[in-house]
Design brief:
Number of strands: 4
Largest sheet: 4 strands, antiparallel
Oligomer: single chain
Structural class: alpha+beta
Radius of gyration: 14 Å
Helix content: 25-40%
Strand content: 25-35%
Distance between the termini: 30 Å
Strand order of the largest sheet: 2-3-1-4
Shape: globular
Length: 89
């Protein structure tokens, strides 16, 4: 049996990413600044932040307009390379 192929994303499209890292006063601003470099035009309403129950971690969820796989790959790599981000979903 052959494995089914994952559905292809049709670009441009709305795309939601979630960035998880250690809580810090400037973590949300840092994430938004990095994302803005790759996907300009983020509105305040497109960003939501959740703190872990013990306050050690922050989760920033953003909705962007994705233009293609190279954009998403560059964005994910820059966030991970920062050392401040544990996971990008």
């Amino acid at each position: 049996m052959s494995q089914p192929k994952a559905p292809k994303i049709e670009f441009p499209c709305d795309y939601v990413i979630k960035v998880i890292g250690n809580s810090a006063p400037d973590f949300t601003e840092f994430v938004v600044a990095v994302v803005e470099q790759h996907a300009p035009g983020i509105c305040e309403t497109d960003v939501s932040v959740n703190e872990s129950s013990k306050g050690r971690f922050s989760s920033v969820q953003l909705k962007i307009v994705a233009t293609g796989e190279p954009q998403l790959k560059a964005l994910f790599e820059e966030l991970k390379a920062s050392g401040r981000v544990h996971m990008v979903l």
